[in-house]
């Protein structure tokens, strides 16, 4: 800027010197202003970066877990990205994130020290709606005894109805690395399409910041879809227990034929009925399935009876109590409440000193199980942590005669990405056998249909082979109802197909389900009470 007095030709030398000094002062003043502004900008950006980094603790050991997190695509993206799914026009703005797991419709990521789940549930063609899917599966968040600071609000986000759940969860003694602060933003982008953003941390989460990160794609920002990759390579199954090593080798690695087994209530006390079935049909039943929970432990006499007969116990253990539903049992276990019962279970298995197929908390992706993620704040990390903790507790006690069987249900209920069976996988170092479970439930109930063995198991095998092709498979329990179709033909097809599939063992569930409201059998899975059904087994195993 020019100074007007400099335009005067008669200006004195003294005045000229004064002007020069004034120029110098103003130049210095300008430099001071520039430096001050620069410092303010730097301070603001640093504060923003600090505010966005809501956690400064080191990454939890649960995020260092072996398993699907390590088997999936892993990379870091350093530029600002709008990530999401091509089916919808809402994306998530993130920088410097690391992918832990990516499947169709689901991303699990690390951003700073936050765990981020971005999910798309397309329910088109099903009877389910986005609103119901969000609200139904969130109802236990508020009701849990381990929930604090719960809030819920329904707002509009980019013009879409959105459900906002914010809450804290108590820390658990045996799971100190689990997150305790949660923010769930679930957006109804269509009546049957739900986009969900779940943030979990150890420090309070800035709700406004994360809501602003969900951005409408106006055509200028391209939403980047992350490539799905989740192939899990099995670690070698080495057993220090000699009998267990031999059983695993002959049944799951170098088996010449399928090992068959059965669940029958009579085996709690005797094997007479099982032996009669073997005599009548010619089938050899090598595996006996039993169920136990926090209030009912296996009797050593029963376990020894099974072992003495040359059979192996498939021991299903559930963190629940028969006839009593408690949605917080899994939290109680990880808080040390049930140590005595669990340690007694371990002790009895060790005393048996024979191979045991151990199946903890099966069908975990079904909401009829109290350990389903719906009852742990829609946080499947609780299940993965529980499994690894239990596995480590067995190891520390010296229980070497255990073969660990991880066994989801054939379908996810509720049908939501957070509840995908893959999210419950604890890691390949903690699993020896992949269990498959699917029933032909028949048509007793209006919403159920008759399904052939092929319709149930071929899609399941195709899906599992995408992720677990290295693992041996066993059908841990299966059966066909007698209502709605030809049960004999179903059994004949099942027996034939199991031998052709890559199935190492299969266990028939020889019991019934009851409709208590009518006092009637709703699903009759038994086969030994029907001469025609027995003849199907005889033709297959005796060649009659």
Q: Give me the secondary-structure category.
A: alpha/beta
The side-by-side strand order for the widest beta sheet comes to 1-4-5-6-10-9-8-7
Helix coverage percent:
25-40%
Using the CA coordinates, give the radius of gyration: 31 Å
User: What is the arithmetic mean of pLDDT?
Assistant: 87
Tally of separate helices:
13
The N- to C-terminal Cα distance equals 110 Å
Indicate the proportion of strand residues. Answer: 25-35%
Largest sheet properties: 8 strands, antiparallel
> What is the overall shape?
globular
Number of strands: 21
Low-confidence segments, given as residue ranges, are: 1-79
Subunit arrangement of the protein: single chain
Brief overview:
The chain is α/β, with parallel strands linked by helices and 544 residues long. It has helices at residues 13-52, 68-71, 130-143, 207-213, 242-253, 272-281, 300-308, 329-334, 339-352, 381-397, 453-468, 487-500, 531-541; strands spanning 76-77, 81-84, 90-94, 97-103, 106-111, 114-122, 147-157, 160-169, 181-190, 193-201, 214-216, 259-263, 285-293, 312-318, 356-360, 402-406, 433-440, 473-480, 503-509, 512-515, 520-524.
General description of the model:
The chain is an alpha/beta fold. The chain is built from 13 helices and 21 strands. The protein has helices at residues 13-52, 68-71, 130-143, 207-213, 242-253, 272-281, 300-308, 329-334, 339-352, 381-397, 453-468, 487-500, 531-541; strands spanning 76-77, 81-84, 90-94, 97-103, 106-111, 114-122, 147-157, 160-169, 181-190, 193-201, 214-216, 259-263, 285-293, 312-318, 356-360, 402-406, 433-440, 473-480, 503-509, 512-515, 520-524. An eight-stranded antiparallel beta sheet has the order 1-4-5-6-10-9-8-7. It has an eight-stranded parallel barrel with strand order 12-13-14-15-16-17-18-19, surrounded by five helices. Helix 11 (453-468) links the parallel strand 17 and strand 18. Helix 7 (300-308) runs parallel beside helix 9 and helix 12 runs parallel beside helix 13. The termini are far apart. The relative contact order is 0.11. Residues 1-79 have low confidence and may be disordered.
């Amino acid at each position: 800027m020019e100074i007007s007095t400099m335009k005067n030709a008669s200006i004195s030398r003294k005045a000229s010197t004064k002007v020069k000094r004034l120029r110098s002062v103003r130049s210095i003043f300008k430099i001071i202003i520039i430096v001050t502004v620069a410092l303010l900008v730097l301070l603001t950006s640093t504060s923003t970066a600090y505010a966005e980094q809501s956690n400064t603790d080191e990454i939890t050991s649960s995020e260092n877990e072996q398993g699907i997190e390590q088997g999936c695509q892993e990379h870091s993206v350093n530029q600002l990205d709008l990530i999401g799914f091509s089916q919808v026009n809402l994306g998530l703005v993130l920088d410097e994130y690391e992918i832990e797991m990516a499947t169709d419709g689901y991303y699990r990521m690390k951003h700073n020290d936050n765990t981020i789940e971005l999910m798309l549930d397309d329910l088109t063609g099903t009877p389910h709606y986005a609103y119901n899917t969000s609200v139904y599966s969130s109802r236990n968040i508020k009701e849990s005894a381990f929930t604090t600071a719960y809030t819920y609000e329904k707002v509009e986000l980019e013009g879409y109805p959105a459900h906002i759940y914010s809450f804290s969860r108590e820390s658990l003694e045996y799971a100190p690395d689990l997150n305790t602060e949660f923010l769930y933003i679930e957006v109804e982008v269509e009546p049957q399409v739900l986009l969900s953003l779940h943030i979990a941390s150890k420090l309070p989460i800035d709700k406004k910041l994360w809501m602003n990160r969900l951005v409408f794609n106006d055509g200028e920002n391209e939403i980047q879809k992350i490539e799905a990759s989740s192939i899990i390579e099995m670690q070698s199954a080495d057993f220090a227990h000699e009998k267990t090593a031999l059983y695993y080798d002959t049944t799951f690695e170098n088996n010449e034929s399928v090992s068959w087994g059965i669940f029958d209530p009579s085996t709690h006390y005797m094997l007479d009925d099982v032996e009669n079935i073997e005599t009548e049909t010619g089938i050899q039943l090598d595996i006996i399935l039993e169920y136990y929970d926090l209030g009912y432990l296996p009797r050593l006499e029963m376990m020894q009876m099974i072992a003495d007969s040359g059979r192996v116990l498939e021991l299903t253990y559930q963190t629940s109590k028969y006839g009593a539903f408690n949605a917080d049992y899994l939290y109680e276990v990880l808080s040390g409440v049930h140590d005595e019962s669990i340690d007694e279970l371990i002790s009895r298995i060790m005393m048996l000193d024979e191979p045991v197929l151990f199946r903890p908390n099966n069908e975990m992706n079904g909401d009829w199980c109290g350990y389903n993620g719906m009852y742990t704040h829609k946080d499947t990390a609780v299940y993965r942590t529980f499994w690894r903790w239990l596995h480590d507790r067995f190891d520390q006690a010296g229980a070497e005669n255990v073969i660990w069987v991880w066994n989801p249900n054939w379908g996810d209920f509720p049908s939501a990405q957070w509840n995908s069976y893959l999210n419950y996988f604890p890691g390949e170092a903690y699993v020896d056998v992949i269990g498959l479970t699917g029933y032909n439930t028949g048509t007793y109930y209006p919403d159920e249909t008759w399904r052939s063995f092929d319709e149930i198991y071929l899609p399941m095998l195709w899906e599992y082979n995408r992720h677990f092709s290295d693992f041996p498979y066993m059908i841990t329990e299966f059966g066909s109802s007698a209502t709605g179709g030809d049960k004999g033909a179903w059994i004949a097809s099942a027996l034939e197909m199991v031998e052709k599939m890559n199935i190492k063992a299969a266990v028939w569930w020889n019991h019934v389900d009851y409709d208590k409201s009518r006092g009637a059998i709703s699903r009759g899975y038994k086969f030994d009470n029907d001469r025609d059904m027995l003849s199907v087994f005889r033709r297959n195993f005796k060649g009659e």
